[in-house]
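User: Hi! I have a protein structure encoded as tokens and I'd like to know what sequence might fold into it. I'm fairly new to this, so please keep things simple.
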């Protein structure tokens, strides 16, 4: 029997034998979907913008309400709930408490959101320059308005109200008061709320906020409501256009529309306001939002706000929401038709304020340009759920 001379047959190899002995890949289980509660309160950027804004307002209010009895005692508030007189000392104490309230609320929210306080439109290498530029703008603008009122016969000057020895003291005290006012109002509206809503608002949420303010003020049936209605209508079509065109940065302007309307709305609670004054408050709120867009921070707005109020209350001694505080330098009185003079609302209630608002806008755009200077948080669509 002859031996088999043929080589034994082999199965064709399909690859490296070592690969055949590798263990099968381990498939990690998919992460479970977030719970409903987490989906409601937490988004891609952490706590959703609506809840953040609401919590900030609540924390600020709690702090202020908690200190209200102390403040009432120190101010000597009467049983009817009004202080006997508005002085720089009373105003200073009130503003200190309000600033501390938003600082405490802002510090807590920054910890929750894992941000720094300066992230809320405070960071600015040129902050000091912007602050003093805003200060000059605020004083100049108010002086132009007062000059126009006096030229038209709608404002009359009286004698100097303070003696030489008291001028500097009251000037300093009112300066500190209105610097704190600038920090409180700009820190609340143009810093935390503007930043937070920018990262999570869209046209429909802005429309809801503005509509709610209009509904509340409309139900009150006051004439001041027309100031809120006017700013709401003025921002409607521009914000809708930005929404339909999916314009980059649209969230900033939709947030500006909402915060400016609310800013006007809260001024309806002041005595002596007219609808022009309410519109002016909302309009200046928009101007301050624009200043953030072109300068990169809120420092111009803080300086302008402080200087405007200081010039109005201390330097010229004009009425402000029906009040003429003690310790003002010059004395003035409105005259003639309230539509032009502003009446008890002061210069802010005059129709001439519209020209000042336009002047502010033109000056900001000419000096700083239209290019966005502030780094904005990227707003995910439909982030607000609160």
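Assistant: Happy to help. Inverse folding works backwards from shape to sequence: for each of the 386 positions I chose a residue that suits the local structure. Here it is:
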């Amino acid at each position: 029997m002859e031996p088999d001379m043929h080589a034994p047959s082999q199965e064709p190899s399909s690859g490296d034998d070592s690969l055949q002995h590798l263990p099968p890949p381990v498939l990690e289980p998919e992460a479970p979907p977030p719970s409903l509660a987490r989906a409601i309160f937490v988004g891609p950027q952490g706590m959703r913008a609506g809840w953040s804004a609401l919590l900030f307002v609540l924390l600020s209010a709690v702090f202020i309400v908690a200190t209200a009895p102390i403040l009432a005692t120190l101010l000597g508030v009467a049983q009817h709930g009004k202080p006997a007189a508005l002085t720089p000392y009373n105003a200073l104490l009130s503003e200190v408490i309000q600033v501390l309230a938003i600082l405490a609320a802002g510090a807590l929210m920054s910890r929750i959101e894992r941000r720094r306080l300066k992230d809320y439109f405070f960071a600015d290498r040129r902050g000091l320059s912007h602050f003093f530029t805003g200060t000059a703008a605020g004083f100049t603008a108010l002086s132009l308005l007062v000059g126009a009122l006096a030229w038209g016969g709608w404002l009359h000057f009286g004698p100097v109200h303070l003696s030489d020895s008291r001028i500097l003291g009251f000037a300093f005290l009112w300066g500190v008061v209105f610097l704190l006012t600038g920090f409180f109002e700009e820190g609340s509206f143009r810093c935390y709320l503007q930043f937070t809503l920018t990262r999570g608002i869209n046209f429909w949420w802005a429309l809801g906020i503005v509509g709610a303010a209009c509904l509340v003020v409309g139900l009150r049936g006051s004439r001041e409501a027309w100031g809120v209605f006017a700013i709401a209508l003025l921002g409607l079509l521009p914000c809708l256009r930005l929404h339909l065109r999916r314009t980059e940065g649209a969230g900033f302007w939709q947030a500006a529309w909402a915060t400016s309307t609310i800013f006007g709305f809260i001024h309806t609670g002041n005595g002596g306001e007219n609808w022009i004054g309410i519109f002016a408050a909302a309009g200046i709120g928009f101007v301050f939002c624009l200043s953030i867009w072109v300068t990169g921070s809120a420092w111009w707005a803080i300086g302008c706000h402080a200087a405007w109020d200081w010039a109005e209350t201390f330097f010229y001694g004009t009425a402000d929401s029906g009040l003429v505080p003690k310790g003002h330098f010059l004395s003035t009185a409105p005259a003639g038709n309230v539509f032009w003079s502003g009446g008890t609302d002061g210069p802010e209630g005059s129709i001439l304020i519209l020209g000042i608002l336009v002047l502010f806008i033109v000056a900001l755009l000419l000096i700083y340009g239209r290019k966005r200077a502030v780094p904005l948080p990227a707003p995910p669509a439909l982030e607000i759920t609160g």
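A useful reference point when you look it over: The chain has 13 helices and four strands. Feel free to ask if any position seems puzzling.
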